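Internal ticket #5521
Category: modeling
Description: The requester needs a full-assembly model to guide mutagenesis choices. All entity lines are attached below as received. Residue total reported by intake: 694.
Assigned to: D.W.
Attached entities:
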Amino acid sequence: MSGSDLTNRAVAVAFAAKPFPWLGDLSKKKILAWVELELPGFFESAKRKYGEHQVIAKPLSPILHILSGNTPHAALQTLIRGILVGAKNILKLPEDDLPEVSEFIQRLPDELKPSVGKVLEPDWFTAAEAVVVFGSDETVQYFQQRIQPWQRFLSHGHKISFGLIAGSFDQDVVQGAARDACVFDQLGCLSPQFYFVDGDAKAFAEKLAEQLSTLISPPRSVSQEIAASLRAYREEWKFRAATEAGVIVLESPKSLDWLVIYDPSPTLEHNPLHCTVLVKPMPKGLEQSLEPIRRHISTIGVHPADARLVALAIKLGAQRVCAIGQMQNPPLTWHHDGWPSLASLIRYMDVEGG
Amino acid sequence: MPLLENEILQFLRNPAEFEALALKIFEFQRKRNPIYAHYCKSLGVEVDSWKNIPAVPQQAFKRSELRSFPREATTIEFRTSGTTGEGYGRHFLPSLELYEAAVQFGWDFFGLPRHPFVLLMQSPDDAPFSSLSRMGGFLAAQQRDRFFISKDGVLGIDRLQRFIDSVKGPITLFGTALAFLNLPSTKLPLPPASILMETGGFKGSGRETAKEVLYEQLSESFGIPISAIWNEYGMTELSSQFYSSGIGNSHRGPPWLRFVVINAETNEEAETGQAGLLKIVDLANLWSVLAIQTQDLAVARPDGGFILVGRDPKALPRGCSRAMDELLRTSQELRVRSYE
């Protein structure tokens, strides 16, 4: 990787990312700092001293990115990583359009534009030195079985995020919790699906509902299938609220815009997303409650973000811990699903002597 | 026998005014079923028409025992298939009289032939919690040898072939779509004028196109025209059934069975031609609740019936909750019918 090439790529990415503030601060300076953090010194010279020998970092190339349709966020993140390490990139798009991805690509210089298609060409797969897959565990497994021993496989299967709140909470926390839950219509892996509250959980549910009702979001259209699922879920919970002690349903009137359920039971419940939030009192056996999803936890948002709650979140198996309100804003430098996001796309060559 | 049960039986024989009887049954159930009464109260709806009788979500049968009669009088329990961790839905009855009458009168209302029945299902003795088996039992006058699926779920294909060969005239072949699809033999021509009744739908890929493919396959396998293939749409939680024949024709119910299509967004009656969730009002469902909100999508037709829309798997909810579904074993039930 030469320094000037990297700088050019950083400039190009910074330009292309401008219309998408939700990608975080992707200024040239930040990008270069990120690369330096993960791959220190590698972009300054082809060879770098490494212990008793020298090492060259080369991108795995081409990288095939198999994208899922739920959010454009992850799609652009992985493409940006591939561009920054200097790989050729191939995007297998989901069936549903991700217009943000097309717009981003339009803004790239031709030499950095990825190959793009909705149908996976067989030679894409065989040519790829790295395959990055986003999707359900089923999808991930499908591609994993087709990976050659010499290919690097990076998978982003399903993840579940949620929040922990202890003690009192102010309006900022409620606002942050509402925002975290509704970005990308709650379809992202970082979208909290439920909050455990050690304190007045019922009051939190009410305040959250109030907040959601004032959130101005662009009118969304969901398929009739999704609308049917959301309606069935809502009506089932209304029945439960009428017949089970303590359950409260707070809903957007005559629309499916949002739904808050206060459920005193510690048992985890299915969530159809699209701004559906369950609020539960934090149980004594929190670890036990979370056991069914332990290996799938992504981000745990905490309030307050103090040592006790951070330690608790880590113990529960969080891959990322942050303050409530920041769940959708991971830093550029985060380890997406636990890996160094740039270094994972690099092959190191060791040179002894010469 | 309670007067109301008699009145309903009378209605099944000689249909009269639907609304008056529906409201009467609603009042009966609200008084005798405290769970339903709580639910109605929480909704705060003023019930002045059969259309706004509060419908219990189908899923509620999995969590609550919805009885409009004393628990100790229960003699029958039907269960949904309940393959998920949420368990199965349960429908309790103190007697089978209304259920049988609804099955028999419904069958005759549509002029469905009573040729010798061949049932691709388990007998009620082998599947005591299956409402479908019970229905088959009534139609086949309890002849056990008409059931061709054994207690352990094995289809007696040789016996079936022998039976079909031995019958001189047409037969009525009735079973789940799944049983038909799992027939090991690809060709099993039925005698002329036979009909085939399938139920159970297409498990998640229920678009009309999938139905067309299924019916073409059935037509070829059994050597009957597509118009002789019927679908029975019912559910464990109900007592009566809707029927449709061939492809593109509406599902219709007998006079004691009505439906409303509910706009999922607004939870109000959908406009004509608009797809929505099917709410069903079944006057024969005296012993639980008469109004049930299903999770099935349908469009009302001008002929008074509806077309099941089915669900496009590609349009299903996605995102990270899918993992939650799998993990919690509560994946959404997409089947058109969930019989035991």
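Resolution: model delivered.
Comment from assignee: Chain B touches chain A at residues 35, 38-39, 41-43, 56-57, 59-60, 63-64, 262, 264-268, 275-277, 293, 295, 297, 309, 311-312, 314-328, 330, 332 (CB under 8 Å).
Ticket closed.
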